Amino acid sequence: xxxxxxxxxxxxxxxxxxxxxxxxxxxxxxxxxxxxxxxxxxxxxxxxxxxxxxxxxxxxxxxxxxxxxxxxxxxxxxxxxxxxxxxxxxxxxxxxxxxxxxxxxxxxxxxxxxxxxxxxxxxxxxxxxxxxxxxxxxxxxxxxxxxxxxxxxxxxxxxxxxxxxxxxxxxxxxxxxxxxxxxxxxxxxxxxxxxxxxxxxxxxxxxxxxxxxxxxxxxxxxxxxxxxxxxxxxxxxxxxxxxxxxxxxxxxxxxxxxxxxxxxxxxxxxxxxxxxxxxxxxxxxxxxxxxxxxxxxxxxxxxxxxxxxxxxxxxxxxxxxxxxxxxxxxxxxxxxx
Length: 337
Fold this sequence. Notes:
The chain has a domain at 2-67 and 102-262. Helices cover 59% and strands 1% of the residues. The protein is built from twelve helices and two strands.
């Protein structure tokens, strides 16, 4: 465990620094609020530092999504299940990844890189729950004992669901476990339903595996969560909420091509644009026929705009309508001789 000692030092330094900050702001150093906010602050610092890795993960996943049409063509070309056909399919896949500069494992590397940090954080918080509490790094045994006695909603940070004698502790831990599992499920489902191109799930083993993990991970957290102290449950819940908000922002601003999120982004952009052509009947547009504000030229029979004739308002009364029937010429009376 000596390899993790630098991580213990870094994690406990941030946690103790936040605790001292909240102590200066007037919070009770032995209270649950100060230690809970210290755990939340620790998660925020770690997740901010991991943003570059998160961006690389998004780019890697985006690259794999863009290659889905080519991957489907290769899968359709080599449909056989014999070893020779499968080998040819694998060779074509590797050639495609090499030509496009895409690494299918690069999307998993950020998760692997985060594992030591999360492991160190788990051991620091888990040490608080031991009897007697044990500190690591900048978290002394005295501070660890103080954190262990701090309570959140009536449950100490060091207490677990298993072995708890108090009903309050079991209720608090059960609620945290449910929230932790639910946020894990919602975060993964948000990625698969909104930021996946249409048809990417069909015949794609990687996507089918992700669909299975969508239900497996929350179940694993729910089962293993009964052995986690309240402090660890608070950490997992906080980091899940951060992941959910961060992913929502990325999906909304930079959706994957061909996904439902991209269609929603296009609709929002189209709604913000103003039409270049003027609306019909406007000040500069051509008026419709018979409209109340029609700007047509007046007719010689007084049928101009607003019923006005070229001779004024009385033009309609002074000029009788011309009958469409042909008038017969009047006969001249015969002169007497």
